[in-house]
TrEMBL record:
Pfam families: OppC_N (PF12911). The keyword Transmembrane helix applies. This is ABC transporter permease. InterPro entries: OppC_N. Coiled coil: none annotated. Residues 35-70 form the Oligopeptide transport permease C-like N-terminal domain.
Length: 148
């Protein structure tokens, strides 16, 4: 029968010889080393404020589809509520002729919705990253204008 060697026991000035003392801190707390690192990071004002600005921009980017989208948030049409930003509806749901996905920027579809006293709530920016604006006042490679 072989006896496995016992690992040496750490002792401190506060613990009796032969008894191991676990670290005394909250299981979800930050270690003293990480607390010191955080204090050092906070003392660097430019880095600290840059971190918070970056975190805010990241949070805003999570809601980018709600800020800029070529589909409306909400359409009230014929007493029913539609949420095109989240669900794709065919054009026939709004009185159109085609079973394809509705193009909400199309003047014909907007006229159909308006005829039935429908309401459309758009995002702040009515363009998505892949939207092409075909109604430009000047040919395409020209300087931007505020009249759009």
């Amino acid at each position: 029968m072989t006896i496995a060697p016992v690992p040496p026991v750490e002792t401190t000035a506060l613990s009796p010889i032969g008894e191991a003392v676990p670290p005394s801190r909250h299981p979800l707390g930050i270690s003293p080393l990480n607390q010191r690192r955080w204090r050092n990071f906070k003392s660097n004002r430019r880095g600290y404020w840059s971190f918070w600005i970056f975190a805010l921009l990241f949070l805003v980017s999570l809601f980018a589809e709600l800020i800029a989208n070529d589909r409306p948030f909400l359409i009230k049409f014929d007493g029913k509520l539609y949420f095109p930003a989240f669900v794709t509806y065919p054009e026939t749901a709004f009185g159109g002729d085609f079973e394809t996905a509705a193009d909400y920027r199309d003047p014909y579809l907007q006229k159909l919705i308006k005829e039935k006293n429908g309401t459309v709530i758009w995002p702040l920016i009515r363009y998505s990253y892949s939207t092409h604006n075909l109604d430009l006042p000047t040919p395409a490679p020209s300087k931007p204008t505020w009249m759009l």
